[in-house]
Amino acid sequence: MRGNPQDRTVAKGDHEEFPGGKALARLIFELTRTGHADAAVEAAIQARPDMDQAAAQELVESVAGPQFGASGSGHGTGDGDGPAGEGGHEGGNEGDGGRADQGNAQSAKPPPSGGGTRPGDGMEQLAANYMAVAETLSTTPPSPSGPNWRSLGPWTIPNGQTYGAARINASGRVSSVAVDPGNASHLLAGAAHGGIWESHNRGQSWAPRTDHAATLTTGAIAFHPTTPATVLAGTGEGDWWSSFGTGILRSTNGGLTWASLVTAPFVGEGFHDLEFDRATPTRVYAGTTGGLYTSADTGATWTRRRTATTWSVAVAPSGAEALAACRDGLFRSTDGGATWTAVTLPSAPANFSRLAVAIAPSDPTVAYVWGAGATGYLARRAGGTWTAIAAPTGASIIQAWYDWFLAVAPDNAGQIYCGAISAHRGDLSGTTWTWTDIASKPSPGQSIHPDQHAIAFEPGQPQVVYIGNDGGLYRSPDRGVTWQHLNNGLEITEFEYLAQDLGSSRWLIGGTQDNGTERWTGSPTWLHAQDGDGGDCGVNRTDPRTVFHSFYNMGVERSTSRGDWGSWAWLPPPVPSGEGSLFYPPFEASATNGNTVAQAGGALYVSRDNCTNWTRLAYPTAGTASAMYIPTADQVYVGTTGGLLYVTRWNGTAWGALTALTTPRANAWVSDIHVDPTDTNRIWVTHTTRNGGRVWRSTDGGTTWVDRTAALPNLPLNAVEVHPGNRDRVWVAADLGVYQSVDGGASWQIFSNGLPNAFVGDLLYHRHARVLRAGLRNRGVWEIPVDGWMTQPVCGVQWTGTVAANSTRRFFTWGWPATWHVLWTVMPTTIRPGAEEMSWKVQVERGDAENVTYWVSVTNLTPVPVAFEGRFAILSRY
């Protein structure tokens, strides 16, 4: 971010800093980190139809680093990577004899979706790897014996950001919502990478239902129209997380439990839509990143009818007509989806980055399309004729490929809802449309979070509207005039990074996708610390009142009051114009002592005074930083997206030039670094680029490396943590799951007991509380006591002493972790029966940021000297 972030965190320009919006920058980041730069280039082209190959490559380079821009191919992963869209299903006859694209000329290989590509060979292999690992995890449900992971929330986040004047409670990205047609109080919500959630009280409380399914990515949910105990859910979020798709889940008890219904042909595809034909409920339509599909047996088997990405399907109540909004335009079927014919739309753009279609339930002769090309596009069909009409006033299409919906009011064919970054309601009177922004309003208490993904209506109550967006789920009882959040207990916040205070077992700060920076102080309700897109964070270990957070791009804010709302000061490094960085550039604070912090992008920026003054250090070889570690105030290590590693050291007066370490694996994205502060020759490095070593250890300061990947699954690895008291005990976080080694990486075991099958982006180990914390994408923050919780006190004698007759003597014992709960007693060893011998008083002094000193005043109540033991009982370390 450049300039004052306070001016941008709730401004619409926030999305427009990148072509295609912030979501596209994040998608490029996600694809390139796993070695799929070709897919990133194709995603950019599809998100922005006005962008050619060269411009797309330039965008990828600006987001991921210069090595990804020259050819758009980045570095290979060794598994046949090609441009997204290659290796897809061919057109023509499918395995069950269905026909594809009758009478429609189009490529036999589907182009990718702007938000989650149709996998090519490499992407499909990645998806298969995800599914294999997820199935392993899903077949090992939580054991009642510990240790077990437990959720820290957020249960809800008050004071969440909107683009209106009001604040509102937030949670995380909701990609789909469905209301039970037989019970209006029964809701199902699908989180982008947080699974399916169920409510029986119109969203006032929630329970997760698929935490241990093969994938938590959710793109579409549909109740059977006449037997709502049957529900289908399409995995893989079409808007973003398509690579994690593993097919369709089915519930036969209304969403309480789920099982896989079908995998092929949907592995690696993301769902945009699932629609039952209400007249023939055995017929189901699916719109995915891989095409348009139909099923004649309630989803058990599928026929692909079109290969173009399909975003939206609408089916007339009679079943006589179905409309599909595809990348290559609008298509119509009148034979139950067997054949499709292109619909000519008046004044339509040549290419759509997104298109949605809806049929009016109250008058099926009326239909609408809402699309985005170079501009917004809206058309209405009435009397069999399509007519272009003016798009919603003020609607932004910059992220149409990512956030988009269209719906017609169930009781009024002249009232429609168009979702984009904001949500607009259109009301037709005669021939005049009136548009109202129902999401971002000036009046307090009436706005909702931006970036709209899903909409639904309450059966029998057409004025009741549900909208899902990047901030959670919201309900309006009056067609969007007023809103109430439904985010209490919907624990789906997407955490990118975490930082902690080692002097407290109940304090964390974390950056979250599109929901700012959040702070935990022990309550399941987290505190909203700052707006914007929350990035990397840090805490000064010497003085944990000083904390840091970043947004996207280069720049840091500092608080000296532990991150209180409104306490942040903008103290960015002096980055030259045009110098790039990752969307979330790495930021670190010293892991041990001093006031050294650093942020890195196209160069390394180091400060020894908590961001007040900065030193810029250029890399010997041009690159983009992707990971850092600061073991002590005098050393900074940095890794790049191209696999290079560097170190700089403070010589007493200045920082030395960056010195290259040996590269353990060339052209592999460095995701994390850990350096032992007590022995800086011992270094751990992880990579997200697959099909090669992804965990490396050096014991000679980075001169030589040993591959410690062993039997870890072939998934990207995102973080590494090392036990400070046992350097052979190591944890790594993968795109799915956490793994532990107790022999220095020679072997690994799944360490995910009770943890949802979610993407794990960051790990922290609290050395005093002895818990490992994990930041999950769309499932909040979790922790596990790595050796189990204490089941009985730990008791001992700390010292012995003597107090003279009828006098008081003061003793102290220091270096006790402040997180521990310790009980002190005094026990005489000089026996004097018949009367009280001693009394004592305990006082506590904070010795430093992490430790305390106990002062114990012991009084001898007898006329003779008394010897005694000072005894302790550790009741809890947490």
Instruction: Give the tally of β-strands.
Output: 64
What is the straight-line distance between the termini?
A: 37 Å
Strand order of the largest sheet: 1-58-57-56
Spans with pLDDT under 50 lasting ≥5 residues?
1-13, 70-121
Radius of gyration: 29 Å
| Major sheet details | 4 strands, antiparallel
Q: Indicate the structural class.
A: mainly beta
Mean pLDDT across all amino acids? 90
User: What coarse outline follows from CA principal-axis ratios?
Assistant: globular
β-sheet strand percentage: 35-45%
SS element count, helices: 4
Q: Helix content range of the residues, please?
A: under 10%
Protein described:
By secondary structure, the protein is mostly beta strands. Helices cover 6% and strands 39% of the residues. The chain is built from four helices and 64 strands. The strands form 17 sheets. A four-stranded antiparallel β-sheet has the order 1-58-57-56, with no helix packed on it. Strands 4-5-6-7 form a four-stranded antiparallel β-sheet, with no helix packed on it. A four-stranded antiparallel β-sheet has the order 8-9-10-11, with helices on one face. β14 and β15 form a beta hairpin. α1 packs antiparallel against α2, α1 crosses α3 (53-64) and α2 packs across α3. Residues 1-13 and 70-121 have low confidence and may be disordered.
